[in-house]
Amino acid sequence: MDFGIKVGTPEKQGGACVTDSAKILDKTTQGYIKNILALGDMDGKANTSLLLHNVPDTLFKRVLLIGLGKEQEFKEKTFLSAINTTLNTLQKTAVTDATLFLSDFPIKERANHWKVSQIVIAATSSSYRFDQLKSKPEKSQRNLRKLVLCIDSRTELATCEEAMQQGLAIAHGMNWAILHRIFAHPRISPNKLKILPKPTNSKYLYLKKKIWRS
Fold this sequence. Notes:
- The protein is an alpha/beta fold.
- It has a single domain (2-153), classed as 3-Layer(aba) Sandwich (Leucine Aminopeptidase, subunit E, domain 1).
- It is built from six helices and six strands; from the N terminus they run E-E-H-H-E-E-H-E-H-E-H-H.
- The protein has helices spanning 23-28, 32-38, 76-91, 112-126, 157-183, 202-211; strands at residues 2-7, 14-19, 49-53, 59-66, 97-101, 146-151.
- A six-stranded mixed sheet has the order 1-6-5-2-4-3, covered by helices on one side.
- Helix 3 (76-91) crosses helix 4 (112-126) and helix 4 packs parallel to helix 5.
- Mean pLDDT is 75; it is low at 192-196 and 200-214.
């Protein structure tokens, strides 16, 4: 999966938008979002979702609303759960790229760069498939290929881009560790070990260079 960081607001984006309150979108669409919520299809409870299509007066084909629960109870655990709900919901659709607005996740003790790394880890892990031992790997049914993370301030761009690379390094390292556990099983033929990939690409070098020092 590809990732990107950009500075932007909901009304100026295209593709699929992922947000909770969608206040800016509601204003842009002259109350469309509030009218949808007033119908009672979504109550905002944690881990609930509502996918809207063809939202008027926007460039969006779809808008995904994610319930985050009560703001005072929104912590790191709730954030991670909301991200998993978002990814799981998107993977069940034909969406190929989506935009996630980090300002919609009110974690006071965490900056955007932390959110970026956690989202990248979760997204990369959720899209991982183990098919090294299959003679004919099944074709993936998942359509989501790119996730763009939007931030409010350009001053955070550099740190968020670095956090994205760190998240990728950690996620790929986790996947590689899973492969080691599988191939270390006594029932795995020694001949199979030849196909075990080695972490020699730039992502793993970045992990060694940037993270082990901190």
